[in-house]
């Protein structure tokens, strides 16, 4: 008889739904109904040890329809719509016969993941949190692919570095979509024999990449690690910390990267674990120089009341209480505008708090923060003139926008929100890059699309990913990011694939 942890069931279910794109309202009602039908009865069948066995699911099935009606009534509550019931079924089918010990050889994460003082249930929940991540694709593929718009005189000419959900690969393409160079290295090649939680998907692709002038590339396996490859995709070094979302390489070769550590933080919950986000500095050879807790930086600052909204009872959080998704080191050029913008401080985006903040990494403490102007935002960046640009994922239902504003007065100075004939929306991920000619390069991740838009709102370059995901290739691969490199970026090392 299958016996498994209710926490594992819930986390596996959330791993399917947490980053899924929003659906039309009618289907969203159905999915919320399904979510209510699943989570309500499932939680009600827990025993004192917080475990569920298959026979008890009979009652769960009996109240399925009633739970669905209740779930449908809360569609207006503001939470993200859930995926289909099959997500839970898959997690049940994949459950091993005994979960008293994790199957195979599991790699303990850093920090307190292997703490002997934790209960078995806490240990399993910590391991499950490590498996949280993105889908390789979520939107049905269309007919278009490649560069579909290129107005050469108006677009900023350069090279494009892209990563997507199709595989552990980064591509350097020109403005017409021709591949000039590629890097590729699988997770198993980098960390042979390393075992992962069964629901992990993020070992199959790179979330973000950075190319160096000599052709080296740094790539993030979301929530799993960071690797540096040379131009021929040979491994230079690898760091197996739980790196995620973003990194920045300094002129001296140091690498700053977002990392997370699964552990129990009593101030948030006395028993349930969370993913604590960190800013980690690595040396040029990948050695750890320092690790700074973003949670501690908030707790020690005047912005600590923002933490009051964190609740592990809220399905939006599920242990990933911050979901920090952007890291930008400041160069000090804007320090005259605000002392918080001093050199060495870091701009971060905390999705769960709908907040962008500047951290003093030496203290550590949050010295400046802004919230309430966007929802589940990505990629805030300071522009050379001191303005702040932010990718706002969900300003209204079913639409996204890129906004530019004065960070001190919050005056809105520019925005792009798409149009009826050019819809623009990504529920997850997304990125914006201001180009030297004043245009903005936007990555619309869920739809596998990137486009360059003028300040007047005209699209002068557009790329649709030709790569597919899903069991039958029916989905467009998530386009995590397209970055425009200047036309004079050195590429003597580039070799186009045959």
Keywords:
Neuraminidase; disordered N terminus; alpha+beta; 2 domains; 30 strands; 5-stranded antiparallel sheet; 8 helices; 4-stranded antiparallel sheet
Any overview of this molecule?
By secondary structure, this protein is of the alpha+beta class. The protein folds into two domains: about 5-100, no CATH class; about 135-485, Neuraminidase. About 15% of the residues lie in helices and about 35% in strands. It is built from eight helices and 30 strands. It has helices at about 5-15, 25-45, 55-60, 65-75, 85-95, 120-130, 185-190, 295-300; strands at about 5, 50-55, 135-140, 145-150, 160-165, 170-175, 180-185, 210, 215-220, 225-230, 235-240, 245-250, 255-265, 275-280, 290-295, 325-330, 345-350, 355-360, 365-370, 380, 390-395, 400-405, 410-415, 430-435, 440-445, 450-455, 460-465, 470, 475, 480-485. The strands form eight sheets. A five-stranded antiparallel beta sheet has the order 4-27-26-25-24, with no helix packed on it. Strands 7-6-5-30 form a four-stranded antiparallel beta sheet, with no helix packed on it. Strands 8-9-10-11 form a four-stranded antiparallel beta sheet, with no helix packed on it. Strand 10 (about 225-230) and strand 11 (about 235-240) form a beta hairpin. Helix 1 packs across helix 5 and helix 2 (about 25-45) packs across helix 4 (about 65-75). The longest helix has 20 residues, at about 25-45. It is globular and about 55 Å long.
């Amino acid at each position: 008889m299958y016996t498994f942890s209710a926490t594992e069931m819930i986390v596996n279910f959330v791993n399917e739904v947490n980053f899924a794109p929003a659906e039309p309202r009618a289907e969203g009602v159905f999915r919320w109904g399904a979510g209510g039908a699943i989570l309500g009865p499932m939680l009600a069948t827990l025993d004192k040890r917080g475990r569920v066995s298959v026979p008890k699911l009979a009652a769960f099935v009996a109240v399925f329809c009633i739970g669905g009606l209740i779930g449908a009534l809360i569609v207006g509550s503001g939470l993200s719509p859930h995926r289909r019931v099959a997500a839970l079924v898959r997690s049940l089918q994949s459950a091993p016969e005994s979960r008293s010990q994790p199957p195979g050889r599991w790699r303990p994460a850093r920090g307190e993941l292997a703490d002997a003082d934790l209960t078995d249930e806490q240990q399993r929940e910590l391991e499950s949190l490590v498996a949280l991540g993105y889908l390789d694709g979520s939107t049905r593929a269309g007919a278009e692919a490649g560069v579909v718009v290129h107005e050469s005189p108006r677009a900023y000419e350069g090279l494009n570095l892209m990563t997507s959900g199709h595989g552990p690969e980064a591509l350097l393409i020109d403005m017409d979509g021709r591949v000039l160079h590629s890097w590729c290295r699988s997770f198993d090649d980098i960390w042979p024999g390393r075992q992962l939680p069964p629901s992990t998907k993020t070992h199959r692709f790179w979330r973000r990449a950075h190319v160096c002038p000599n052709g080296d590339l740094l790539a993030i396996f979301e929530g799993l690690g960071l690797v540096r490859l040379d131009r021929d995709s040979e491994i230079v070094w690898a760091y197996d910390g739980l790196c995620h979302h973003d990194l920045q390489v300094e002129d001296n070769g140091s690498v700053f990267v977002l990392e997370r550590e699964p552990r129990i933080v009593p101030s948030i919950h006395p028993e349930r674990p969370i993913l604590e986000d960190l800013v980690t500095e690595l040396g040029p050879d990948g050695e750890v120089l320092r690790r700074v807790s973003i949670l501690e930086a908030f707790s020690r600052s005047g912005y600590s009341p923002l933490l009051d909204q964190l609740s592990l009872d809220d399905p939006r959080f599920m242990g990933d209480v911050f979901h920090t998704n952007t890291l930008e080191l400041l160069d000090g050029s804007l320090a005259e505008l605000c002392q918080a913008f001093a050199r060495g401080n870091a701009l971060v985006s905390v999705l769960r708090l709908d907040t962008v903040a500047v951290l003093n990494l030496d203290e550590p403490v949050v010295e400046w923060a802004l919230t309430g102007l966007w929802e589940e935002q990505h990629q805030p960046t300071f522009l050379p003139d001191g303005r702040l640009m932010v990718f706002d994922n969900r300003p209204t239902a079913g639409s996204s926008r890129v906004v530019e504003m004065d960070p001190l007065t919050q005056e809105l100075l520019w925005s792009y929100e798409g149009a009826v004939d050019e819809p623009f929306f990504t529920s997850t991920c997304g990125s914006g890059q201001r180009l030297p000619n004043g245009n903005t390069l936007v990555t619309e991740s869920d739809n596998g699309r990137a486009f360059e838009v003028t300040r007047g709102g005209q699209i002068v370059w557009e790329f649709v990913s030709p790569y597919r995901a899903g069991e039958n290739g029916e989905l467009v691969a998530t386009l995590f990011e397209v970055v425009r490199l200047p036309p004079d970026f050195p590429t003597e090392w580039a070799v186009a694939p045959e």
